[in-house]
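User: quick one, fold this
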Amino acid sequence: MENKKQKEKDFAQMVKGNKNTIYTVCYMFSKDQDEVGDLFQETLINLWNGFDSFRGECDVRSWVWRVTLNTCISAERKKKKSETIPLSMEINLFTDTDSDTKQIQQLYSRINRLGMVDRAIVLLWLENMSYEEIGQIIGISTKNVSVKLVRIKEQLKNMSDEQ
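Assistant:
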């Protein structure tokens, strides 16, 4: 019984320390608040289920990133299989229209059009992670991270803003 309480305590502490990371990744895969909440919960379930088997071969932060990315990528694949078109009549009359906000929105719009792995690499890079950490999380070599980032940056530059 004491061991279970300690596990719950350790898990809660790990989640508390990585909550922003989990939310950031979930938000990168969906802008819908309910869906982000669902992704967050699904990630917590996957983290809990894998908590006992985490062997500490990598940093806890890297493990949380990997589990969160895998959860979001899996959800994205499921979503694509049963794609629906949401109807919305909401109009935000208070949307920022300054040039900085427009540039940020343009960047995120372009990032969201990348493939899932490329999107994950950009997200990790924007979080100032080293190429080595990105490679560990994604499961590719450090050199491959470097090559992919060069290609992704070029791809983002060449995208049009339509779509």
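User: anything notable?
Assistant: The chain is about 75% helix and 0% strand.
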